[in-house]
Design a protein that fits this description.
Its EC number is 1.6.2.2. With about 350 residues, this protein is an alpha/beta fold. Helix content is about 20%, strand content about 25%.
Length: about 350
């Protein structure tokens, strides 16, 4: 069963399965500015991997977000040698085990892995998913999209994705059409940002909606899997439309409570309810100046992930080949450079 709280898999890593908490505090719904399409992400290597696969249709990131699914099998200790279920060289088919609806257009999808294996993903990376189609000319082809698994990287025996269904999203629609027992082909990992312990003194994370996915990978890596070795300080600005759209709020809040000297979290809502006491509006120049490490501070990084328009406004768009591209937007105006900015 999908479990009740998002935190146990990442913080307590217990093995007993329970039900996913779909209440407001752990609402795992839409991305910020949810009328926008999913964020284009990845890097040059990812684009090259996609381009070489003969994709039928356009390529874009439809990133899923970090799951609220508690381990159905025992997570593996970091020092334990286990097999990687995914392969970066070939697609493999994995059966859908369970689906948990989060809201009207977002669900958690759990796929079975061999009991003695993990996904093999590292921070920060994604996978490529595909399903076969017949193209307009009658020839066979595939719809291929990258997604970020949302289960803990050390979880053994399963992998989870949170997927929001978009009206024109071919792969997201395919996810939501899958039935338990159906298979999905997956290939990976595809690296994004290679994380190194204590490489940065301070890291600022700016996320919109399901753009929280790679940010949570980093947060978990620093606070959960380094056994206290990684002293990197983290500030997260997380933008959404409504409180119900905030993904994994319970897990994030527990990290902030457990590590008050190492992580600060600031929520922004575009359409807050009257009772909301957090931040309001969009990510602005003033928000960046207030919360992000400055461009002249040593050993810092600002990472951005969210809808295309949001990323373009904050850091400049990625290049057409999905590489980082030039720094633009608010961060360029404030003096940041490619040396201290990363776009997922």
């Amino acid at each position: 069963m999908l479990y009740r709280t998002v935190v146990s898999s990442a913080i307590r890593a217990t093995a007993a399965p329970t039900r996913l908490n779909a209440q407001r505090q752990t609402a795992l719904g839409a991305r910020a500015y949810s009328t926008d399409k999913p964020k284009s992400g990845g890097n040059g290597l990812l684009f090259a991997a996609l381009a070489g696969l003969g994709v039928a249709g356009g390529i874009y990131y439809n990133s899923s977000s970090t799951t609220a699914v508690k381990p159905a099998a025992k997570p593996v200790a970091a020092a334990t040698e286990v097999k990687a279920a995914f392969s970066p060289k070939e697609f493999k088919a994995f059966k859908l085990k369970e689906v948990q609806e989060i809201n009207h257009n977002t669900s958690v999808f759990r796929f079975d892995l061999p009991e003695d294996s993990t996904s093999g993903l590292h921070v920060a990376s994604c996978v490529i998913t595909r399903y076969p189609i017949t193209k307009k000319d009658g020839t066979p082809g595939y719809i291929i999209r990258p997604y970020t698994p949302t289960s803990d990287e050390n979880a053994q025996g399963y992998v989870d994705f949170i997927v929001k269904k978009y009206p024109d999203g071919k792969m997201s629609k395919h996810f939501h059409d899958l039935k338990v027992g159906d298979e999905l082909e997956i290939k990976g990992p595809i690296p994004k940002l290679q994380w190194e312990e204590n490489k940065f003194n301070n890291v600022g994370l700016i996320a919109g909606g399901t753009g929280i996915t790679p940010m949570l990978q980093i947060i978990r890596k620093v606070l959960n899997h380094s056994e206290g070795r990684d002293k990197t300080k983290i500030t997260l600005v997380f933008a959404n439309q409504t409180e119900e759209d905030i993904l994994l709020k319970e897990e994030l809040d527990k990290y902030a409570k457990a590590h008050p000297d190492q992580i600060k979290i600031h929520y922004l809502l575009d359409r807050p309810a009257d009772k909301w006491t957090g931040g309001k509006g969009f990510v602005t120049k003033e928000i960046v100046q207030q919360y992000m490490p400055g461009p002249n501070e040593p050993n810092t990084l600002v990472a951005v992930c969210g809808p295309d328009k949001m990323v373009e406004l904050i850091s400049g768009a990625k290049a057409k080949d999905k590489s980082q591209g030039e720094i633009g937007g608010i961060l360029k105006e404030l003096g940041y450079t490619s040396e201290n900015v990363f776009k997922f």
